[in-house]
């Protein structure tokens, strides 16, 4: 899977977590987090705030799967929404890592390049916490 240039770095701060379901060998949490993003490559010079909500199902095996959506707002007020799916696993005690595709949608002329790219996000954070960091790369098929 060829990865292109870095597009964003997002540092998340915790906000809220809710247990949505407990099942046989798994449980699902809904998490909402906010943070700050910095642009690189085609998004170089962009900075602003990020908000995300995602559902993460943690399986007994230590693997997790989920979906998420959010919004990035630049310091100038331009906005882009995104959707992601992801899979993760425990790296070591208390640390979780995840990876997944991200797609974007915006009406902003300044950010319209995001409508045509697919990205891959790699992240890491404290297990069960919406605090962490994502590094987003353009996917080059």
Structure explained in plain terms:
This protein is mostly beta strands. 0% of the residues lie in helices and 72% in strands. The chain has an eight-stranded antiparallel beta barrel with strand order 1-2-3-4-5-6-7-8. The radius of gyration is 15 Å and the shape is globular.
Structure keywords:
141 residues; mainly beta; Porin; eight-stranded antiparallel barrel; 0% helix
Summarize the structure.
With 141 residues, the chain is an all-beta fold.
CATH fold name: Porin
Q: How many β-strands, per DSSP?
A: 8
CATH class: Mainly Beta
SSE topology string: EEEEEEEE
Can you give the mean pLDDT?
93
Uncertain residue segments: none
| Count of discrete structural domains | 1
Query: What is the distance, rounded to the nearest whole angstrom, between the alpha carbons of the first and last residues?
Result: 7 Å
Architecture in CATH?
Beta Barrel
Radius of gyration: 15 Å
Largest sheet: 8 strands, antiparallel, barrel
Measured as a percent range, the helix fraction is under 10%
Please state roughly what percent of the residues sit in beta strands, choosing from under 5%, 5-15%, 15-25%, 25-35%, 35-45% or over 45%.
over 45%
Structural class: mainly beta
């Amino acid at each position: 899977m060829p990865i292109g240039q870095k597009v964003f770095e997002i540092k998340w701060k915790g906000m809220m977590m809710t247990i949505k379901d407990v099942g046989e060998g798994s449980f699902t949490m809904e998490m909402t987090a906010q943070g700050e993003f910095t642009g690189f490559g085609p998004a170089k010079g962009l900075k602003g705030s990020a908000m995300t909500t995602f559902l993460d199902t943690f399986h007994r095996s230590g693997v997790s799967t989920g979906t998420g959506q959010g919004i990035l707002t630049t310091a100038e007020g331009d906005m882009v929404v995104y959707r992601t799916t992801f899979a993760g696993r425990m790296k070591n005690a208390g640390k979780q890592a995840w990876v997944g595709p991200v797609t974007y949608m915006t009406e902003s002329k300044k950010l319209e390049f995001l409508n045509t790219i697919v990205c891959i996000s790699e992240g890491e954070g404290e297990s069960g916490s919406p605090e962490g960091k994502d590094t987003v790369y353009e996917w080059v098929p």
